[in-house]
Amino acid sequence: MAGHGHHPAHRGVQHGDLRVPGGQRPEGPGGLGEAGRSPGPGPPGGGGAPAGEHPPGPRGHPPAGGGGLCPRRRADPVGRGAADRRVGHDRGVPPRPQAGGGRPAPGHPPGRAEEHGHRRHGGHRRPGQGGGHRHGDADGDGEDRRPPPPPGPGGDPLQRKMKEVSRVLSLVCVGVCAVMFGVGMLQHRDILDMFLTAVALAVAAIPEGLPAIVTIVLAVGVGRMARRNAIIKRLPAVETLGCASVICSDKTGTLTKNQMTVLEVWTPAPAHRDRALTLGTLCGDAQEGPGGYIGDPTETAIAQAAAQAGLEKAALERDMPRRGEAPFDSVRKRMATCHALPNGEALVAVKGAPEAVLARCTHLLGAQGPRPLTDGDRRRIAQVGGDLAGQALRVLAVAQRLQPALPKSMAAESLEAELTFVGLIGMMDPPRPEVRQAVDRCAGAGIRPVMITGDHKDTAVAIAKQLNLYRPGDKAIDGAGLDFLPQETLEEEIEAFSVYARVTPEHKMRIVQAWQRRGHVVAMTGDGVNDAPALKAADIGCAMGKTGTDVAKGAADMILTDDNFATVVAAVEQGRGIYANIRKAIHYLLSCNIGEILTIFLATLLPVSQAPLSPVQLLWLNLVTDSLPALALGMEPVEKTAMTQPPRGKEEPLFSKAFSRRLAWQGALVGGITLLAYGLGLHLTGTFAVANTMAFATLTFSQLFHAFDVRSETTPLFRLGVLSNKAMNKAFLAGAALQAAVLLAPPLQGAFSVVPLALEQWGMVLALALTPLVVCEAAKLLRPKGRKKSPAGAARGVRETVGTR
After folding, report:
1. CA–CA separation, 225 vs 568, rounded Å?
2. 613 φ, ψ to 5°?
């Protein structure tokens, strides 16, 4: 201890108005002498509240545990490696004994809440909560026990949509082919020819390559997301991302940089600033590394601030070695360590949520030493803590107890009793600069971003305002408020809240379920063991790649390698683009196949003795036009308008009325120009061979040209850039070259029953083949503009666009 008595005091000691000049030195060696000894229980009214009778403490309490380069528990309760030794244990897993004999409070196995968030203390009942009170169908601990909305039958939404496409195509194609075959029989045509034509038409009309194309498009999208720091674990999750209408995001490390800096240290007496930093440093697991302290950002910030005050952690631990600890858990919201002093006495250092620490204090360290803690002192400390939180600071409280010898028990109940309050430490974690823009993009896209944090509500709201996530008229609610709300009431009022503070993993589950029952598709971020149920319940679970546990990563659908909220928004944009590309591929394939079906079916009904296309030509069409162009549409870059539209419904059918109408008239257009080419060939030459060749060439080239106008449903091609999709350019050239070879190479002409065409006949073929492209592009220009969406950045507009559907 003596080694700490010579550290100079520092200016800027916070006191009262948070800025009282320093200059006084704490009494006793290292600021931990007799002045810090608690004289015993205080008078009635000044004693500490029993455990479990305090309100939820602030988020931001650092993790507990022993040494090492990272903030870890000394025990690994779930048997995982270092990456999983997080701050808490999963529920239901009995904790191992802690180093030094420390253990969690009986009946409360430690559990990690988001960002070191906090659980409501078990067994606590607030006014109006009887022993049998239930939150709707929730149990007494506030967790909703009703199951989340059941998923639709048949797997993921994309899988169900593909089954829908398959069912519709199968019924239509089989029906049309059967009718065509029957009509041919009634017309006394050759049975074998009609059978071969019907089978070839069925093969060509059903896009058997669609599953492969969808899989490739999803895989390409996953690769794009991985390059933008989002790793997708399940391919169908990509499509679900595009439906996201609510993003429930952690604060620390996701919305903020997770780079803590101590800005304020407040003590009731100005002379005890160094004492507060010493206690905060001792009660932590930060370790010195090559470039500074390593470990939890909260603990490293305190250790760094202490080092700047001349209180090096290594020297403190050498003079006051740790002999035991009560690790942090989200029920107690505190961490306690016990240290041996050179004179044989023992020091208990405690840090944690101000409310939680203050509830265990009976005394306050004033200018003249410890004195009983009064109700006025408690109000003053709470006010100062609120002022610090209102400045967007994470606030921790520190307390101590000196006793003649090491305690026999290192249990939390023993260590965290009759404490002396020392001070408050306020730390700033600045917002990420790119998050504000991402929040604004969410507003323009009809996505509602909300903050879920374990921090104090005032701290969370202050950060949310800086990010434009919390606007005038929005509300914030903390864990205590959530505990009072029945689940049915929460579901009714869930859209009013933009900030959820002091949450526990159980609260996260309730929040996710409430949003889902309002018809929203929810993306949820999390990193802890106990976040796994909420990640599973969310439509898209997003685990943190840097700070997340293996349990959270295993439960999530997506892993953010940079722990950044902006990455979630970028992933949603990619999800929308991928779904749009899949829709474009289906649009192209089905409109072309409808054209083929109509060509053969109508030709069968007309009084012509020979079909416009032979079976081998139909199979060739299937090879040339149904593969590369459709795949190239899947490579289309995400359109600039992707994040200007509201999210689609998760169960929104693929074959909407507008989509079906486009397929019908575009397919009819392709079939019509093919029959027109066939009729022109017959009219001008009177030979079926020329007419067949013209129809074959027109149908093939029209489908290749048609692929260009399908690249966007709303944006004209000249705005996209005619040659901007390199994959499409290559697919078109490959298809055109193959078709030209069949039409021009004599050895292939005989195999495909085609004849050479004259120059004017080639001119008619190309003019007809370009018709679908010209007509579809003109339709885009003439289409009425949709309703103007809420401007980007207007959070109030998000509420309008993502309201209950």
Report:
1. 10
2. -135, 140
Instruction: Decide the pairing of beta strands 393-403 and 346-352.
Output: antiparallel
Percentage of residues in the chain having pLDDT higher than 90: 48
Whether the pLDDT of residue 767 is over 90: the answer is yes
Residue 614 clears pLDDT 50, i.e. is over it:
yes
Angle CA 303–304–307, to nearest 5? 85
**How crowded is residue 766: how many other Cβ atoms within 10 Å of its Cβ?**
14
- Per the residue annotation, which of 84, 90, 156, 250 is the catalytic one? 250
Which pair of structure tokens corresponds to residue 319?
């003079």
Distance, CA of 543 to CA of 521 (rounded, Å): 17
Predicted confidence at residue 785, as pLDDT, reads 62
Question: Tell me: the pLDDT tens digits for 674-727?
Answer: 999 999 999 988 889 999 999 999 999 999 999 999 999 888 998 888 999 999
Per-residue pLDDT at 38: 43
Gap between the Cα atoms of 67 and 112, Å rounded: 19
Nearest to 386 by CA among 468, 461, 277, 328: 461
656 or 417, higher pLDDT = 417
Q: How far apart are CA 393 and CA 395, in angstroms?
A: 6
- The answer to whether residues 423 and 267 touch, using CB atoms and an 8 Å cutoff, is yes
**Helix 726-744 with 688-709: angle, nearest 10 deg:** 180
Q: Are 531 and 556 in contact (CB under 8 A)?
A: no
One DSSP character per residue, 128-142 reads: T--TT--STTB-TTS
Closest CA to 705 of 676, 738, 680, 670: 670
- For residue 527, CA distances in Å to 253, 300, 467, 558, 565 come to 10, 20, 22, 12, 13
Mean pLDDT of 375-382: 95
What does the pLDDT read at residue 23? 35
- How far apart CA 438 and CA 757 sit, in angstroms, is 57
Distance CA 734, CA 741 (A): 11
Q: How many CA atoms lie within 13 A of 30 on its CB side?
A: 23
Task: Using the Cα atoms of residue 317, residue 322, residue 328 and residue 333 in order, give the sign of their dihedral.
Answer: negative
Closest to 111 in 3D by CA, of 503, 501, 487 = 503
Helix (H, G, I), strand (E, B) or coil at 200: helix
Residue 250 catalytic?
Answer: yes
> What pLDDT score does 115 carry?
39
Residues with Cβ within 8 Å of 396's Cβ and at least 6 positions away in sequence, in order, are 58, 60, 61, 62, 280, 298, 302, 351, 352, 353, 354, 424, 425, 427
Residue 788 has pLDDT above 60, yes or no: no
Find, among 409, 349, 353, the residue nearest to 97 by Cα.
409
CA–CA dist 424, 264 (Å, integer): 8
Q: Please say if the pLDDT value at position 182 is more than 50.
A: yes
What is the residue whose two structure tokens read 């008239």? 665
Please choose, from the candidates 113, 110, 99, 111, the residue with its C-alpha nearest in 3D space to the C-alpha of residue 68: 99
For residue 206, give the nearest of 664, 719, 626 by alpha carbon.
Answer: 626
Query: Phi and psi of 428, rounded to 5°?
Result: -105, 130
Q: Do you know the residue count of the chain?
A: 805
Please check the confidence at residue 72 and state whether its pLDDT lies above 50.
no
Q: Is 523 in contact with 506 (CB distance < 8 Å)?
A: no
SS3 content of the chain, % helix, strand, coil (to 5): 50, 15, 40
Q: Which of 476, 771, 601, 697 is nearest to 176 (CA)?
A: 601
Structure tokens at 246: 């609510």
Task: Read off the pLDDT of residues 640-658 as tens digits, 9 standing for 90 and up.
Answer: 889 988 998 877 777 788 8
pLDDT higher than 50, residue 661 = yes
Q: Give tens-digit pLDDT for 191-250.
A: 887 787 778 777 777 777 788 888 888 888 899 999 999 999 988 788 888 899 999 999
